[in-house]
Give the backbone structure.
Amino acid sequence: MSEREWLEGLRPEDREVEPDWKDPPRVKDPELLRSLHKRWRECAMAMTNEEGERCEPILSLHHIHPHPRDDVEANLIMLCGSGTTGHHGAIQHRERWARDALRAILRASRPDFIGYLAVKLRSPDAAREWIDRVL
């Protein structure tokens, strides 16, 4: 059945459905978060440190796309710091150098995030635009 045939089979009142603009509910997966803390034991941005500089000893997961903060591996990255310190703090405070570094890391080594974002934003072009504009 084609889309047109399907639409013609609907009652007139069913054809004028208002779009639901609300975000879908957030995906929460505490088990995944625990497992990633065990698997990812270093800051993904450690290579951006100056020679001799060390990352913060605390590691924390950062949700790359914030709305909603889905707990899926493709939307998470391990960073040093607590969200106010280290690389995690630099990203949260939107420091240009940190965003540039994260953007480069995602493009070079995280195709899973690009795919996740393309699905979330409903197109690969929207995903690339978001990465350029927000990160």
